[in-house]
Each structure stands twice: as C-alpha cells, then as structure tokens.
Amino acid sequence: MAHIKGTRRKKLKKRLSELLHSNYVRFGIILPLFFLFTVYTAYFYERNRSIYSIADSYWYFLFAFITGVVRFSPVTFWGRAITLLSSVVRICLYGTILAKVSSVFINFQNQRDKGLTKLKNLNKHFLLCGWKPGMEDILQAVLNANVDLTPDQIVLINEAPSEQIAQIRSNPYFKEINYIAGDFSNEDVLQKALVNSAERALIISDQSKGGTQLEIDSRAVLAVLAIKNLNPSIYVAAEIYDSKFESHLNLAHCDEIILTTEYEHNLLATASSGKGFSNVIRALIGSESSSGVSIEPIPAKYYGKTYGEFAAECNYDPTKKSLLIGLLLNTGNFLRRRRDAIREAHKNPSVESVIDNLLKVKTLKSNEPMLLPDESTPLRRGMKAIFVKEREARKDETTDNQKPV
Asked: How crowded is residue 12: how many other Cβ atoms within 10 Å of its Cβ?
C-alpha cells in the first residue's frame, strides 16, 4: 500500500513539474505580473499629473493593452518609458498570438490536403477506394455515369503520393474532391471517410503500393469486408483480376463484381471475329457515346404485370429514343433485399414456405441480367429495366476549359 502511495506521489510531482515548466503556464503568470508592474509604476510616477487614481491607471493600461490606444499623456520620463515598454510588449504579444493562430490554421490545411483529417458534414457520398494510372479519366467517367453526383460528394481513399492528389485537385473541375490518405481496408481510415453515412463505394484495383495481382485482389476483399462490417446498407462494387476471389466477395455480400481480366479476354475474343463487336460494346458503355445502356427502376404500378405488357408500353412511343432490352434481377443492396424477402415471407401463412423463401435469398445472384426475357415473365420488386437510350446531360455541365484535359 505504501508503495502504491509513493508511486502516486511521484506521478503527481512529475505532472506538476511538467505543468510548471509549460510555456503557457509561464506566460499566464508573467503577463499578469507585468501588467500589474506597469499599472503601479505608471501610477507612482504619474500620480496627480496625468493619472489621478489607481483605478484610472488600471483602466488606461487595460484599454491601451487591448486596443493599442493610450488615453493619457505621461509627463515624466519613467511614465513615458513604462508606457512605451507596455506598447512594445503588446505588439510582440499580438504578433506571437497571430503567428500561433496562423500556424494552427496552416497546419490544419496541410493535414487536410494530405488526407490526414476526418471529414465532416458528408452524407450519402461516394467512396472511391484505390489508385491506378489515369485516375482523372476514371473520376470523369464516374461523374459522367452518375449525373446527380458532384465532385464534392466524392471521397478518394488511397495511399498514392500527395503530389498525385495535388495534381488532380489543381484542375478546377476536381478541386472540391475530398481525400483521405491510408489503407482503404483499414477500419480507422474508413471511419475518417465517414463510411457509416456513405451511399456507394467503388473499389478499384489498387496500384499505389505495387504488389502482385494476388495481393491487390486480397486487399479488395478485405476492403469489402471492412466496409460492409461498418455499413451493411452501403452498395459496394469491387474490381478484381482473378475470378477465384469472386466467391469470397459473394460471401462478403459485395453487390457488384468487376472481373477486369475476364472482360479484357472476352473483348479480345469478340474482336477476333472481325464483326465489330468491340465497337458496339464501346458505343454501349463508352462515356463519349451519345447513347448507351441505361438501368432504370420499374414503376411500382407494373409490379405483378408481365414483361410483355411493360415492354409494349415502353416501346410504344418512338420519340422517346429508348428501347427496352431486358431486366436486371436482384438489384440493390443485399441487406435491403433480405429485409424485403423477410417482409414478403411473413405474409405467407405456411412456415415451410417462409423458410424456403429465406433460403432462396442467400442463393440469389446480385444484379443478374436477363436479356430479352419471355414476355410472360412477371415483374416484381428488386427488378430494374435495361434500356438502350440517349444519354442524359449532367446537371452541373461545365465549360470545356473547366473539364480535365
């Protein structure tokens, strides 16, 4: 017991010693003492000349210390000397305070530019995790594909050199983009990016740290697990090289999986036929094309009706410049689909049917396309329509000199 008390005393003495040796404590002691010294010294030499009471002396020097304006005219040498000394100290003090405040703001701005500070006041934003060459083109493509998305709603999370981020932000079109530095599979880094309130996340094959394709894909899987753990309702799309990681992403409830290598191989294979498939695909998904594939929600009034009835009404007016070509099944976030399935299952009085419906939810494939389905296919919740139509212009369309070159 005595040993514990001795240890506590040592800690207390150490803290008191550190406190007394602090510059702030010294400043807090010296400044009031100096103020009292100037007040009483000036009163002693200027009494019944320019200062007639100690209260007047306090007021004059307090007013001079705050505003820099001297309200009395000292007549003695020492009165003038102490007034001049007070003015010099005040100027030095204000300069020190201004430098300190400026240093704090500059440091905060530097930390923010380097992506080391936590973001604030963001909701339903877009997380872009990872880094690869041509990042400006990727950002521009993301903005073109999401007409309601603005640069200030995008948060970059990567470990790229700060010079690369500064180069992107130097473009006026991207200056409002947010940035968090760090490993996007780390939960602390994701918390800084406010992943809990984010709406969507895109994980691209990260090449900022180098490494093999196996390491890059493994990092993507870890990132999906971390993001879904922090925000189960977020929509996550991930890019991987090797298809063997697809099952891991499905287990992590990744909503959309991009198999880059497989797409490249299929594109090369179709091009080898000499029929122009690659140009058709480019026209459907390319950002420079005036028309392309569009995924749109099906109005609730068509639920329970057939695909044929919906298609007949959609394709009735040729002036719309759109053509319905299929359905996208099991769309949206996995958690929401499960909630909808549970809600629908509870409407069924049969316990066996409820269990079967819940088991089917786990085996559903997210965002499964069904091109040119049978006209008798019933429409239900979780489906979206696939159109080929004219592209919409961005709401915040800028002039050519604002867009990236």
From this structure: 10
CA nearest to 387, candidates 366, 367, 404, 371: 371
Look at residue 387 and tell me whether its pLDDT is greater than 60: yes
Distance CA 98, CA 275 (A): 70
Element (H, E) at 169: helix 162-169
Contact 271, 236 (CB under 8 A): no
Classified as helix, coil or strand, 124 is coil
- In one letter, which amino acid is 288? E
Question: How many DSSP H helices and E strands does the chain contain?
Answer: 14, 10
Number of Cβ atoms within 10 Å of the Cβ of 291: 15
Nearest to 166 by CA among 104, 121, 110, 107: 110
Q: Token digits for 177?
A: 């983009």
* Three-class secondary structure of residue 178 per DSSP: strand
| pLDDT class of 326 with cuts at 50, 70, 90 | very high
What SS3 state is found at 137?
helix
State the pLDDT confidence band at 405, using cuts at 50, 70 and 90: very low
Q: Give residue-wise pLDDT tens across range 42-89.
A: 888 888 888 888 888 888 888 888 887 877 788 888 888 888 888 888
pLDDT at 174 over 80: yes
Amino acid at 276: G
Q: Which residues fall within 8 angstroms of residue 350, CB to CB, at 6 or more apart?
A: none
Q: Which of 201, 198, 238 is nearest to 216 (CA)?
A: 238
- Give backbone dihedrals phi and psi of 149, rounded to 5 degrees, phi first: -95, 135
Contact 358, 341 (CB under 8 A): yes
* pTM beyond 0.70: no
Q: What is the CA radius of gyration of the chain?
A: 34
Q: What is the predicted pLDDT for the residue at 1?
A: 56
**Is 368 strand, coil or helix?**
strand
Each residue of 137-165: b (16+ CB within 10 Å) or e?
ebbbebbeeeeebebebbbbbbebeeebb
Distance CA(102)–CA(98), nearest Å, equals 6
Which residues, 6 or more positions from 297, have their beta carbon under 8 angstroms from its beta carbon?
384, 385
CA atoms within 13 Å, Cβ hemisphere of 46: 28
